[in-house]
Amino acid sequence: MSAERAARNRLISSFRNRLQEGQRAICERFLTTGNALALLHERCRLIDDTLCDLCQAVNLPASLAVLAVGGYGRGELYPASDVDLLILLPEQADDALTAQLEGLVCLFWDIGLEIGHSVRTIEECLEQASGNITVQTSMIEARLLAGSASLFAGFSVRIKAALDAKNFFQTKRIEQEDRHQRFGETPYSLEANCKEGPGGLRDLQLILWTTQAAGYGNCWKDLERRGFITIDEKQLLESSEAFLRDLRTRLHLLAGRREDRLLFEYQTALAEQLGITATATQRASEQLMQRYYRRAKAVLQINAILLQNIGTALVPPREEPPQPINERFQNAHELLDVVHEDVFDVTPGAILEAFLLLQQHAGLHGMTARAQRALWRARTLIDDDFRRNPTNRRHFLELFTYGNRLTQALRRMNQLGVLGRYLPNFGRVVGQMQHDLFHVYTVDQHILQVLRRLRRFAIEEFAHEYPLCSRLISDFGNPWVLYIAALFHDIGKGRGGDHSELGAIDAAQFCADHDLAADESELVVWLVRQHLLMSRSAQKEDISDPTVIARFAEIIGDERHLVALYLLTVADIRGTSPKVWNAWKGQLLEQLFTATRRHLRSSEAPPMPAGVIAQRQEEARRVMRFLALPETIHERLWEQVDTVYFLRQSAEEIAWHARVLHDRRKTDTPLVKARLSPLATGLEVMVYAHDQADLFVRIVGFFSSADYSIVDAKIHTTSDGYALDTFVLLDVTNRHSEREMISYIEHELSQRLSRHSAGEAPASGRVSRQVRHFPLQPLVSIQPLVSLEADETGKMFVLTVVAADRPGLLFTIATQLAAHRANLHTAKIVTLGERVEDTFLISGGHLEESACRVKLEADLLKQLQL
């Protein structure tokens, strides 16, 4: 080894050890003191000293300047952040200098620094900054590390002179809007990004970038002195920034890399580091996220106020006197403004009046920063006396009865902290995330999403989205009672106990306080108490069974309650998660709604099953005549099926089966037929084969391997020993190729069933990170089916399984049923995000004996916990 190479290696080793030891000591001090800002500054100083000494060690020409830019230039280096450098040249580098600089950059990497670097002259910097806002932003934070102070001074003057503060402000504002859109325009995601997400650190940095570019100041204290923010807002900004800074620092250390997302795998550890412990009703991670959401919400609010104030200072609006609205409010450039900043102190009731005026005046498109700030400050005036005031109660109710812009009004009230002050129980669920594996919004945001869905039903422009819902709500009369019910339907979450019952108590008190009529109060309270009834019935019960419809209709009572519950249920599911709703669920709900309405409108006694069977058979015959099928095509099949078949299959399905099987009923080869589902989504597959003990297991294994989710299964056995099973499938991979998959399913499944081999387990896959880090304790229950037919009670059993979704889950359940010789009759497969709630109608397997039911439950639980 040459002496030169050996010297270089010694230099690298020395600087690398110095860097590693220094960073280790800095991180250890942080874990002891919890002072994130000290860590950022100490890491900057460590890197500064290391880089300066390294430049000196390699004899970097004094005519150059090495600048820290970006976050490093700002003096904040997070544990895993890049070190951004600009090597400034007085003129274009010659070959020798280029080689020297390349060697220097290699040294930076060799000693363990992740460097983001550029090498430019001042002219090149100006050219790059003119077309790239990111480059321009990084340069306004530049500071000198080593080299020519005069070159850096000239650079600073030229960059500042070229900066157009107004254009910079507008561009950064658009950049923020685009960034917020990438994150769904909400800080309330399950795994929020504490740097880039709405309400994150970047929103705070953007404010200071724009004020620095405009010459208004470089810190919150400067903005307070200039009157852009109040001292309270300054303190809130400082505390929010400190909280976000601390979270991001801990995230980098936990992940051991640059990670700004509050991922599931880090949430519990972060909560523990911050001293947060679980309670009886909330995980520690949920409390952590609630703190984060509330901080992010405050950052968003002050960000909006500040940007509006900065924009007004940079681009003053045209001289135009405000138009009076009343003695408290005025229209200032199409924004609601207060006539003076103490309006709410003088007249606290004007707090709710402000939101009413925004609803009632179409020419108003928002609020001035002054009005927002005054409302933000005045929210603490909402106390028990305020809530008891009859005028305030009337104003709050008018927000709902007026209806227009209701969602906007409530979102703004929530953002400003007014809604949670007026309804303290709503305030408790603000920012509350529940890791139930299917809700993707905090409780308050979910409630507002449900309200938004209901309002869309009532707006003509959206009638094409939900034709039935739009028609029903237009004929409903006083739809505002639905909005009140939506506001309270989940308000009881997080308190322990049944949130529906807790919410109903809150709703009853609200209705009494706000003088709702008796029938309106009854409907609101009933809806809150029963808001889960329709989705559970549609997805877990056999809604083709008249006894199920009769039992459901008895609980509903009348058509107005039915319509109200249907509308709220659709809005509730749609407002839970984009993953939860699909056309299949929509059709199930509509079928249950239609059947129940028909039942309620009938003045006769509930029809007996035999009457239903005759009616369904006649409907099937009509379908077959429409298809020009022979009159007797169905007879042999119908002789072999029992009454349950006609109760559970639709007339259209019965006709389909008859058409397919009329000349192949005695086949020895398994027959598989598939078609596009008549419900407009997914595939419907019929399997007809000699009955076998493991037939269902093998079918389920095939569908799972083909990446299909079974959402409905109807299992029948004919009197001559054939299985006649029908499945509804949804493609879990979104291939959008259902028609192309029909031939594949018919051929491949038929071939596999012909081989009479044991059921193949589907290929294993990975469970989601949410399931992995927030496991759901599985629940298994087997209960006797209570039938209106006395001799049927006790023969059939309802198996309910609640578990975290995972690949092959249904195959596991089917395998256990087969092992216990339990016969499966129907299956309702409900997937709610990452959670499944499946219901099976089973018999046989000595389930009449308690010990056999207990054994099946125990074996299922054991498998589900693996």
Automatic annotation (TrEMBL):
Positions of the UniProt region annotated as Uridylyl-removing: 325-683
Q: Which InterPro entries is this protein grouped with?
A: ACT-like_dom_sf, ACT_dom, HD/PDEase_dom, HD_domain, NT_sf, PII_UdlTrfase/GS_AdlTrfase, Polymerase_NTP_transf_dom, UTase/UR
List the HAMAP family: PII_uridylyl_transf (MF_00277)
Means of activity regulation = Uridylyltransferase (UTase) activity is inhibited by glutamine, while glutamine activates uridylyl-removing (UR) activity.
Q: Which reaction does it catalyse?
A: [protein-PII]-uridylyl-L-tyrosine + H2O = [protein-PII]-L-tyrosine + UMP + H(+); [protein-PII]-L-tyrosine + UTP = [protein-PII]-uridylyl-L-tyrosine + diphosphate
User: What EC number(s) has UniProt assigned to this enzyme?
Assistant: 2.7.7.59, 3.1.4.-
Molecular function GO labels:
[protein-PII] uridylyltransferase activity
Q: What gene is it encoded by?
A: glnD
Q: Which PANTHER family match?
A: BIFUNCTIONAL URIDYLYLTRANSFERASE/URIDYLYL-REMOVING ENZYME, BIFUNCTIONAL URIDYLYLTRANSFERASE_URIDYLYL-REMOVING ENZYME
Cofactor(s) demanded: Mg(2+)
The entry's family comment says: Belongs to the GlnD family.
Q: What is known about what this protein does?
A: Modifies, by uridylylation and deuridylylation, the PII regulatory proteins (GlnB and homologs), in response to the nitrogen status of the cell that GlnD senses through the glutamine level. Under low glutamine levels, catalyzes the conversion of the PII proteins and UTP to PII-UMP and PPi, while under higher glutamine levels, GlnD hydrolyzes PII-UMP to PII and UMP (deuridylylation). Thus, controls uridylylation state and activity of the PII proteins, and plays an important role in the regulation of nitrogen metabolism.
Domain remark from Swiss-Prot or TrEMBL: Has four distinct domains: an N-terminal nucleotidyltransferase (NT) domain responsible for UTase activity, a central HD domain that encodes UR activity, and two C-terminal ACT domains that seem to have a role in glutamine sensing.
Instruction: Give the UniProt keywords, A-Z.
Output: Hydrolase, Magnesium, Multifunctional enzyme, Nucleotidyltransferase, Repeat, Transferase
Describe the location of the HD domain by residue ranges.
443-565
Coiled-coil region: none
Q: Which stretches of sequence are listed as region Uridylyltransferase?
A: 1-324
Where does the ACT domain start and stop, copy by copy? 684-756, 798-866
| One Pfam family this sequence matches | GlnD_UR_UTase
Name assigned to this protein: Bifunctional uridylyltransferase/uridylyl-removing enzyme
